[in-house]
């Protein structure tokens, strides 16, 4: 089933079997994340979550920019009272809770909220031109969508501090070395590689993938003991699936498995 919503700021396509692609498309504003833009991304993710045909999602932007952060025209109007009443955090929570594999394919700038959005993905594939940064201090604010927490957990304290306190950007090679991204590709191949990876993941048993994603994410929140406990329970749940029987049987019978997602 394709996504039948009408969008203004994003383009939704199905580039491969079981793979959905969400392309941010506000080129004049460098994909700045306005409230509508973020709502559309969440609507598309919700549609992908509800669609059994979709097993992995690629989120990408343009050639020169993934996303240049919060929309600074909207930011100019934000104040404390408005922020306290705002439901904005729910938008980010929805992205955080997206249950299927989410791959960010990043070319060009991923700045501020754009870098934070990329970090909400499970895997980041970066084009060689990618630049990541948390430049909020340059405009008198600080990261507000998880940048301080996710960056420190991902690249370590020193590099996170450098980026958050100075606003300096890092290039794709530094992002790879620091573990922010999984792979660097020539920029013209970034989306193709991300879709291929999504396709590989989409061929795996969906329940295994879903619980494995959840288990890896738990490692950011839980103690090792609690995380191992979660993993053990998730593993036991998977033992009850038809796909587990099919996977092992196919291996022993030397054929390709046909996973059904149950
Ligand atoms: N918001 C609104 N418009 C923007 C933004 C933005 N974040 N970034 C660029 N634009 C607009 C520019 O105003 C310009 O518009 P116009 O053509 O009408 O003058 C157009 O996009 C092109 O921009 P530039 O001319 O500046 O393009 P350059 O190629 O020279 O520079 C840069 C590209 C380096 C990306 C530069 O545009 C830049 O530094 N942008 C701002 C980046 C930034 O500071 N981002 C952080 C914003 S704060 C934030 O993200 C806080 C997150 C908090 C929670 C998340 C909420 C979503």
SSE diagram, text form:
Elements: E1 10-16, E2 19-24, H1 35-50, E3 56-60, E4 65-67, H2 72-75, H3 80-85, H4 88-96, E5 102-106, E6 109-111, H5 113-120, E7 123-127, E8 131-133, H6 147-155, H7 157-166, E9 170-171, H8 172-177, E10 183-185, H9 190-202, H10 206-221, H11 224-239, H12 242-252
Parallel strand pairs: 2-3, 3-5, 4-6, 5-7, 6-8, 7-10
Antiparallel strand pairs: 1-2, 8-9
The structure holds octanoyl-coenzyme A.
Octanoyl-coenzyme A binds at residues 29-30, 32-33, 38, 68-73, 109, 111-113, 135-136, 138-139, 141, 144-145.
Features:
single chain, 262 residues, alpha/beta, 2-enoyl-CoA Hydratase, Chain A, domain 1, Lyase 2-enoyl-coa Hydratase, Chain  A, domain 2, 2 domains, 6-stranded mixed sheet, 16% strand, binds octanoyl-coenzyme A
Describe this structure in words.
This protein has 262 residues and is of the alpha/beta class. It has two domains: 10-202, 2-enoyl-CoA Hydratase, Chain A, domain 1; 206-252, Lyase 2-enoyl-coa Hydratase, Chain  A, domain 2 (Orthogonal Bundle), CATH 1.10.12. Helices cover 47% and strands 16% of the residues. The chain has twelve helices and ten strands. It has a six-stranded mixed sheet, sandwiched between helices. The chain has a four-stranded mixed sheet with strand order 4-6-8-9. Strand 1 and strand 2 (19-24) form a beta hairpin. 38% of the residues are buried. It binds octanoyl-coenzyme A. Octanoyl-coenzyme A (CO8) binds next to helix 2 and strand 6.
């Amino acid at each position: 089933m394709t996504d039948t919503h009408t969008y203004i700021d994003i383009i939704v396509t199905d580039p491969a079997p079981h793979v959905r692609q969400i392309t941010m498309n506000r080129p004049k504003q460098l994909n700045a994340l306005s409230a509508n833009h973020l709502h559309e991304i969440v609507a598309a993710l919700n549609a992908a979550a509800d669609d059994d045909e979709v097993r992995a999602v690629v989120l990408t932007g343009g050639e020169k920019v993934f996303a240049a952060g919060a929309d600074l025209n909207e930011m100019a109007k934000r104040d404390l009272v408005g922020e306290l009443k705002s439901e904005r955090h729910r938008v980010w929570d929805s992205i955080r809770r997206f249950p299927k594999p989410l791959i960010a394919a990043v070319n060009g700038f991923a700045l501020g909220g754009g870098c934070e959005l990329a970090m909400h993905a499970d895997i980041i594939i970066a084009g060689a031109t990618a630049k990541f940064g948390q430049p909020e201090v340059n405009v008198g604010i600080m990261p507000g969508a998880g940048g301080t927490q996710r960056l420190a957990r991902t690249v370590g304290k020193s590099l996170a501090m450098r980026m958050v306190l100075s606003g300096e950007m890092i290039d794709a090679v530094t992002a790879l070395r620091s573990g922010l991204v999984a792979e660097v590709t020539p920029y013209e191949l970034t989306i193709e590689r991300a879709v291929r990876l999504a396709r590989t993941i989409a061929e795996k048993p969906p329940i295994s993938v879903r619980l494995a994603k959840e288990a890896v994410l738990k490692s950011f929140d839980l103690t090792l003991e609690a995380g191992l406990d979660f993993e053990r329970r998730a593993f036991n749940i998977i033992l009850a699936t038809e796909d587990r029987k099919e996977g092992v049987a196919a291996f022993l019978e030397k054929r390709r498995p046909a996973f059904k997602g149950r």
